[in-house]
Amino acid sequence: MARPGAGAHRHRQARSRSFRECRGPAYHGCGRDSSRRDWGLMLRALYSFLIIAALSALAIWLADNPGDLVMHWRGYEIRTSFVVGLGLLVVVAFLVLFVYRLAMGALRAPAGVSAYFIQSRRRRGFLALTRGMVAVAAGDASEARRYAGRAKRFLDETPLTLLLAAQAAQLEGKEDAAKGYFEAMLAAPETEFLGLRGLFVQARRAGDKARALELARRAFSLRPKTPWAAQAVFEIETSEEDWDASLATLDRMLSAKLLTRDVARHRRAVLLTALAQTAEEAAVAQVGEAKRVPRERALSLALDAASLEPDFVPAVALAAKLCGETGRVRRGAKLVEGLWARHPHPDLAEAYMNLIEGESAYDRFKRVRLLAGHNRDHIESRVALARAAVAARDWLAARGALEPFVGANATERPSQRICELMAAIEEGEHGDRGSAREWLARALHAPEDAAWAGEAYRSHRWSPINPVTGEFDALTWRAPGLRLAPVVVPSAPVPVPMAVAPIAEEKPVRVAEHHLRPQVEEDEALAVAPPLPDDPGPTGADEFDGDIGANEGQKW
Asked: What is the full DSSP assignment across 355-411?
């Protein structure tokens, strides 16, 4: 049974809740909006009242002043009251308007019918286009070709129909037909960029680097803020070792904000180091005074690269080497010593040892001791000290430097270069060729030392690109990881007459400077670049995922 007064109580609660909602953060705005609505309702009611009052006043006036309306036409006299005549005039006006509308509708009927059929064709064309795109995504070549024909019949050669026809032709392996569709896109400004991308993908697949570079440059000029075009131009120019053009492209990419400043700075350091290497090679090919100009240019480029990336070992090592060749020994030593304290490296040690031409082995050993003091316990410091001591025939110092790696307290197997140094020490100090041969034999099976490695490439000399794949800045300094070859377990037990089952042989991997190398561990970081676009799909800024600054490149 309802409680007395419950309805009034609920009404008060609703009013209170409405008031609390209105007194929220936008209380003042809520009041203004409600006031405006109230004023609008009042004005509309006032206008309606005024119109009704005016019509009522007119009807009363006509009733008080009836009057007569007389019309003479062809000997006839038509007489009626004014109110009836006015009503007849209104009816005639409505009839004339109705006939006019009917006639105009009849005249416009063909255009309306034509518009209906056009809309129907467009609707069927877009439906065929949608289904064709789905067929392309599913890899159904026959369905894609059929829907491409229907879309072209209903929509003519619009950009999307041309794209669908080109992709359907590519699915069927008809590259010439696809090329024709992409070239047809170049004729219209709205489809030119799409056609350039399609032709670029075809040229890249065919291995035509010159044509691919031409198309990528044209696309980059057309839309400088498109990542794939800029990336393609930069990758092809670096793979062709066109360092000047690569620097110009890098500046344009930075201006278009396609790269972060840190990535652009590192790439510039690599390119400047590559230019310095090229200038150094040109200086080596010259004789006498002609060497000075290219050598000075190489030094300037290397110093610029080292200033951009102070921890970039190839730039610092090359700058130190050129400082020594041009008589700037102190500056070269300062460069190497500054980086050695943070990142000791064999390239830095080599450049430091050769700073002074014609220096005695004893003096070089003294300088290397100073260098090793900047990072005393690092393996590179001890190896450099051992090399200099062997050259100076200071066998005690050489053994002491290598003691942590070959002594009784060694925690791991000595690497190849440590075994070779120990062989030189044994033969040089005692003339013990047997011990030397023993160390050399151990070196054959010792762990490999770190080197500049990339995909299918390994070398002790740094290169700005991977010579095998053409990838830019793809070499990293690392030691190869070792693992045992997997043993193939037969499906059925097979009797083995030997006491020990044979171990599955490990397939050799092709490399640039070694015939064989151990397999790389699965979790080892590899310098693999993101591929270029494989289809002429969306052309917006979101078509590239990931950072453009990562190692990129296509294997040509």
From this structure: SSTT--HHHHHHHHHHHHGGGTTSHHHHHHHHHHHHHTT-HHHHHHHHHHHHSTT--
